[in-house]
Amino acid sequence: MAKLPKKHQFLDLSDYGRSSGHWIASKLQHTAFTPIHVTTLFIITGFTAIGFLLNGYLITSAFFIILKSIIDAADGELSRLKKSPSYVGRYYDSIADLLLNFCFLLTFWYITDISIIFMLIAFFGIQLQGTLYNYYYVILRNSVQGDSTSRVFENSKPKALKGESQSRVNLFYKIYNTLYICFDKSIYYMDKNASHSKPFPKWFMTLISLYGLGFQLLLMSLMLVFKLQSFVIPFFIGYSVLIIVFVCIRKLILKP
Hints:
By secondary structure, the protein is mainly alpha-helical. The chain has helices at 18-28, 35-54, 58-81, 87-111, 116-143, 166-190, 202-208, 213-225, 232-239, 241-252.
């Protein structure tokens, strides 16, 4: 089930795991497995990748990073198949992604001679990249009546959906907001008027998908396959330059 109406669907370079994720979700649709269980599974898969990376099994680690990306797509697919949207699940997924990103980069720092300062800069950069992608994608989804579980501005506790408790929603929102607020506000202040634009064209969204988490993990995996683990942290620092490019395209070409 798509997040966007067919008219507005675009080539999402970060969404290569969607078809496999949908297949996994379809097998779990009529079982007791919930999207929360699937999210927990991708956390385990991510730490498995880290374990192999620490022990020098680069290609195996790359495989599990890609598998994590595929399973990451499956939790949302399962939620849509079961018709059970959840704010708890949405926040849990995002919290897990951020913590895994930090652990991935911390591991690359540990196995190389890179400065911890550069590792922290790369982490901030990779989170800003993903936030920019999500910011524009959520704006698009909301403007064309697509999936609405994610909100353009996560600045207040949402009302719990059917089947989830308000107290759990409040707790996960608080954790999410603590972890993401600096990234969300940074991107918002770079492009405050983005939500007033007409629906973004497909070519622009495809460009932005270069910053989607799935594509970021694909790049990490490719560098591991080619034994370029020492370049992962410097690469993602330099990759952040495109943030300015994408924001300028939106402001200068896709004006409200």
